[in-house]
Design goal:
Strand order of the largest sheet: 3-4-5
Strand content: 5-15%
Helix content: 40-55%
Radius of gyration: 27 Å
Length: 400
């Protein structure tokens, strides 16, 4: 690995301005091939780590969790690596091209994502030789555009069951929500015909019911406003399922000074899902809301419930969520609605049910800290995690 890092260091010092256009393109092609080979080796190594459950060394259940928490990969990229790793042994020709740098990670994932365990079992039942397809796909991947491989694999997938039963519409439904740095949200959904009809009917009812004179909103803006209104109505109805003992609601965290200050206060408030909004926007929302006072300073904690209360109250949970936001176990970051409030010092051992003695932990890591792992909050407010052998789980630069 040190030699690889040294080679990359040498590449980084090259003067690109001294190269001709042809040399720049040759260099680019070489880097793409090298990247493909690195991706292939990463996939192979990650698969070995998954099989040997190496992530347990850092208290995590899977390499997916490790990639997200320790390597800071997106969930989608972690899924791609895992999916491709599971497919390596089933497509040797394609895997060889991947290892040689001739096939990209995205191309390999086209096959891995479409031809999984179920599809391979169907092919075997029908006497289909996947080896021939593997060789053909490897050729297409190395000689044709990316879209050509996707089309070839889709045709194979369609041919496996051309006259099969009516598909379950829920299996094809997808909704992806992405939160950006400024708190805004974008998304993408895929629905079957019936599901899409239901969504369109609900959206259209609000669009047609709200058509004020002089409305200059575009149709897409009207649709977005209608979607928010549908959710607003559902939240206000109180009929949604509970999230960890409380009804789902919009949560805001705002300092008292910003609440009473008439200034705009950009980025002064935070929502329960981690977005930042202005104090002015938070005050607007607070016009029709319940307000809970949580003193976060060291001199007074009104939510200090003492030992008389074994069960965490909704008020204390709000305070723990406001402070911790996610599971505090190193490398996790599971959302607070997945988490339990853990007693740092067990109640049976004299630990009190208060904010200082509480930590937000997802179910898996709540179990871990009751079986040898431990977490604690240092004087600076930073959470730290230790393995059963006393070594600390540290997350920092991957390369030293």
């Amino acid at each position: 690995m040190s030699e690889l890092m040294s080679a990359l260091d040498a590449f980084a010092t090259d003067d690109l301005h001294g190269l001709t256009d042809g040399e720049v393109l040759d260099r680019t092609a070489s880097l793409v091939a090298a990247r493909n080979r690195l991706d292939a080796e990463l996939t192979r190594t990650a698969r070995h780590a998954a099989v040997t459950q190496a992530a347990e060394h850092d208290g995590l259940k899977s390499m997916r969790s490790w990639f997200i928490g320790h390597a800071r990969l997106s969930a989608g990229e972690a899924d791609r690596i895992g999916r491709s790793g599971r497919a390596l042994a089933h497509f040797p020709a394609l895997a060889a091209g991947f290892a040689a740098g001739d096939v990209t990670a995205a191309q390999f994932d086209v096959v891995a994502g479409k031809v999984g365990d179920q599809e391979r079992a169907q092919a075997e039942e029908q006497g289909i030789d996947l080896g021939a397809f593997d060789a053909a796909w490897a050729t297409v991947a190395q000689e044709a555009p990316h879209a050509s491989l996707a089309l070839a694999v889709q045709q194979f997938d369609d041919a496996l069951d051309p006259d099969g039963p009516e598909p379950d519409p829920t299996e094809g439904r997808r909704l992806t929500i992405v939160k950006h740095a400024d708190g805004s949200v974008t998304g993408r959904f895929e629905l079957d015909a019936v599901g899409g009809e239901k969504v369109q009917s609900a959206i259209e009812s609000h669009v047609q019911a709200d058509r004020p004179k002089g409305d200059t909103r575009t149709r897409s803006q009207q649709n977005a406003d209608a979607l928010v209104q549908v959710c607003d109505n559902q939240l206000a109805s109180g009929q949604l399922p509970t999230l960890r003992t409380v009804k789902p609601h919009v949560v805001l965290q705002l300092d008292l000074e910003d609440a009473v200050d008439p200034a705009t206060g950009p980025g002064a408030a935070r929502t329960g899902f981690g977005a930042s909004i202005s104090a002015a926007r938070a005050r607007w929302l607070a016009c029709d809301a319940d307000i809970s006072r949580i003193v976060m300073g060291p001199d007074g904690e009104p939510l200090d419930l003492g030992r008389r209360h074994r069960v965490v109250t909704p008020g204390l949970r709000r305070a723990v969520v406001a402070r911790d936001k996610t599971c505090v176990f190193a490398g996790c970051g599971a959302p607070h609605w997945w988490a339990d409030v853990h007693h740092l010092v067990h109640w049976l051992h004299g630990g009190e049910t208060n904010l200082q003695n509480s930590a937000l932990l997802c179910e898996r890591h709540h179990t871990k800290v009751h079986h040898g792992f431990s977490v604690e909050r240092d004087p600076g407010g930073r959470w730290r995690t230790w393995r059963p052998d006393g070594t600390e789980i540290l997350i920092g630069p991957l390369l030293h």
